[in-house]
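Support case: user asked for a sample of complex input and structure output to validate their parser. Sending the pair below.
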Amino acid sequence: MTIQANNNLGVKIAGCGFFVPERKLNNLDLEKMVDTSDEWILQRTGIKERYLAAEGVGSSDLAVHSSLQAIKSAGIRNEDVDLIIVATVTPDYPVPSCANLLQDKIGATRAGAFDLNAGCSGFAYGLMTGSQFIINGSYKNVLVVGVDLLSRITDFTDRNTCVLLGDGAGSVILQRDEGESGPLAFTLGSDGGKYDNIIVPAGGSLHPASITSLENKSHYVRMDGRAVFEFAVNKTAKVIQEVLQQAAIDIEHIDYFLLHQANLRILEGVSRKLKIPWSKILVNIDRYGNTSAASLPILLTEAVNEGKIKKGQLLLFAGFGAGLSWGVTIWRW
Ligand code: ACO
């Protein structure tokens, strides 16, 4: 359902940060691992390289780096954080949450903490969830993180998936704003009937980890690439129009579109369908691949660091992915 946001109190992104691990894997490296080519990957996805976390590193470790940057740029202390929401499908452990580990590692001693699983839409869901605590006046500083180590659930012998994915983390601090910043309208959506379009079949309560699940490689992510592609272009375009209508904003008044970076051709498809000038679509998929929940906060932080985003501008965030799920919001900066 698309709703108009209730902005009794404004909410601003007071700080942001991102982090990717050191090891870079380019398309030529992948040529040595599976039957693929630099040319195929570039043409079909727009991806040139991605980063992979070293052994012994968990999602919370990446999230520490991006979160400390966000806290610093917001000008607060670690202990000022009231709530931590971590959007991830790759927590360090199934139990406890990645957010609990992050809370301890950064010394956010006063904060509550929980994880949120909404696939590649995770950050959009987290942004809207965290905003509610600010808008209703409960909390002053909410840390929202999108982090995924997709390499941990990727079968590096499966060319259908392994060329697409990368590891990364991005964080924002949400605070009250006396001005007009914050969401103008948003949608959080789900089409659970298509749950198996992107799925890790084993390791959950239905099919716990077993010798068979290991042998079948069903602890790795599987995906119907064409179905997801079609969904991503059509649903994203449709929902963007709905949210614009709800906010009573013409598409040409949006300054930048921050769309989940899954495939360059998906971004081109949405741009074509909605006649969005390419210069307004932020792109970094060539350098990071699909980093799932980390994709949008990495994109945002780069744009902020480059000085692209200015006070009062209108941004449109759109996440889509496993679930199937989607989350779109128009945000006044
Ligand atoms: N290298 C070379 N050839 C390949 C590769 C590869 N890495 N992968 C697939 N191919 C082959 C296929 O086998 C197929 O061969 P065939 O015609 O002989 O059967 C051919 O290339 C074309 O395959 P398509 O699936 O039609 O290729 P398409 O143009 O649709 O691109 C892709 C595939 C890149 C996966 C695209 O469909 C896509 O990006 N889908 C969305 C993926 C996505 O966003 N997933 C969500 C993220 S995953 C997550 O959330 C964890």
